[in-house]
UniProtKB/TrEMBL annotation:
UniProt name for this protein: P-type ATPase C-terminal domain-containing protein
Membrane topology: Multi-pass membrane protein
InterPro entries: ATPase_P-typ_TM_dom_sf (IPR023298), P_typ_ATPase_c (IPR032630)
Organism placement in taxonomy: Eukaryota, Metazoa, Ecdysozoa, Nematoda, Chromadorea
Organism encoding this protein: Panagrolaimus davidi
An annotated GO cellular component: endosome
Entry keyword set: Magnesium, Membrane, Metal-binding, Transmembrane, Transmembrane helix
């Protein structure tokens, strides 16, 4: 029966350890089941949803940029970003902040015990559904379009290196800002992951001179235009997020009471 359930829970008691060894989760006392469901279950679900969504977003926005680049340049068959930058984007530049979302908490443990009705809301599956996937798809389409088109209009003057440097810088900072906007309660590991990512990216800009012209990336024109692209990519999403958060907070309050 334990193995047939969606989540088998066994109690390590005097009767023996067979149930706890066969179960997915093992507890020492029956009253611990409340904490297992209301606290650990909620945090695991919310964190898994956030992590999955950002893994999807991180890949989609890159695909959108590549698609727009191919369309702009008569459907060329080569990658817009070199392989070393793609590897850096998937690892050192964005990996640590994305995986730091597993430490995020939308509420405290005490609040989860105080309002057990919030666990019932999770059973509706609204945090990770087709609707949320479509939302992140639209966000990726918008931000990828802004990053690529903004870089092309802003700096492109028969200089492919400047176009690549501007768009890639805006891409990395957009992803880091989006992660920061998603975090509910900051943990020291989140600050550290953001700092490590920024240091690695800044170091790569100085090391890979063939991709980042030092004179260009230190100019005021590059900083101003890149900042404007990042602002256009993130500010509308932040405004929508705040508005939806205010509306959903009132809705959740009514559902709880």
């Amino acid at each position: 029966m334990i193995q047939a359930a969606h989540a088998g829970i066994g109690i390590d008691a005097k009767e023996g350890k067979q149930a706890s060894l066969a179960a997915d989760f093992s507890i020492t006392q029956f009253h611990h089941i409340c904490r297992l469901f209301l606290v650990h279950g909620r945090f695991c679900y919310k964190r898994s949803c956030s992590l999955s969504q950002f893994v999807i977003h991180r890949g989609l926005i890159l695909s959108v940029i590549q698609a727009i680049f191919s369309w702009m340049f008569f459907f060329v068959s080569f990658s817009f970003y070199p392989g070393v930058l793609l590897v850096g984007y998937a690892t050192a530049f964005t990996m640590f902040p994305v995986f730091s979302l597993v430490l995020d908490r939308d509420i405290t443990s005490a609040e989860a015990f105080l309002f057990p009705q919030m666990y019932g809301i999770l059973r509706k599956g609204r945090s990770l559904s087709i609707k949320t996937f479509c939302i992140w798809l639209m966000i990726s389409l918008y931000q990828g379009t802004v990053v690529m088109c903004g870089s092309y209009v802003g700096v492109y003057d028969n200089n492919f290196v400047e176009l690549m440097a501007t768009s890639f810088t805006a891409l990395v900072f957009t992803e880091l800002i989006m992660i920061a906007l998603t975090i509910h309660k900051w943990h020291w590991a989140m600050y550290l992951s953001q700092a490590i990512s920024l240091i690695c990216f800044m170091g790569s800009m100085l090391y890979f001179n063939e991709y980042f012209n030092l004179k260009f990336i230190t100019s005021s024109n590059f900083m101003l235009r890149t900042s404007l692209i990042i602002l256009l990519a993130c500010l509308p999403i932040y405004i929508i997020k705040v508005t939806r958060g205010a509306l959903s907070a009132s809705t959740s309050y009514n559902q709880i009471y």
